[in-house]
């Protein structure tokens, strides 16, 4: 069972698997492709989704097997320091690691997953293209 406000009292490393999964807001942004400028290290976001991302729910369609199906899929829990560079500023994992509060729209605060979509944070509010339809990711960089 997940304790109320567990994220205020535990570090990411101290969280159980259930708590870790509950912290995810299901926005789907981590499943969009990013590009890194090799010279500056700057991260550019695209509107191109991993082929496993269900753009209607914002969830992975094969979460349990994602790393076997998508070779460059990164487990946030196992590679958090690496992933931190490209996680969106709204990501609950990033916020907790930085000692910041979760936003009011986060499901753990609001009590419903709908608020992520209503706040315009989820990929449901964006025009998303499947990676299967893209030749050059640079053509799909977004602000």
TrEMBL record:
InterPro entries reported in the protein's UniProt record: Puta_zinc/iron-chelating_dom, UCP006173
Family according to the record: Belongs to the UPF0260 family.
Protein name: UPF0260 protein NSCAC_0702
Gene name, Swiss-Prot/TrEMBL: ycgN
